[in-house]
Amino acid sequence: MDLQNQQRVKDAAEKYGAENVVVILGSSDAEGAEIYAETVANGDPTFAGPLAGAPLGLAVYHVFEQDIRDEIDPAVWEEQLGMMEMVLDGDALAQATKGIREEFSKWQI
Amino acid sequence: MGKLSGKKLLLLGERDGVAGPAMEECLKDSGAEIVFSVTECFV
Hints:
heterodimer, A: mainly alpha, two-stranded parallel sheet, 5 helices, B: alpha+beta
């Protein structure tokens, strides 16, 4: 994850309280989703950025997970995400993110 | 609906996946506050 964005995640967790923050990913591949999810839940696995050694435990979801989809108006979903849903492997992205969340996140929605 | 109500959302989009603005549009009425939204690119 971009180092500047790691800092923004860290700042938001400190400002609002980690328990109140939810990270939502739009990653295109499962491996990338896992790395992003791990970074915000357990710290930067590459030890390169501000989240290195900072296991924030944030709740993290992929936008294609059912928990998130349930919160979105179906018409808006179709308009904004319908095309990408056909192109990307939503089930794999959801499973990858869920796996990391269940292992490292301290909070869920 | 309502599980996100009162939460602070950080939207980490990806250029080749779902971009930040598309997620913003989807989640702006979720009852949560969007703290920031970005679209990363790996090129």
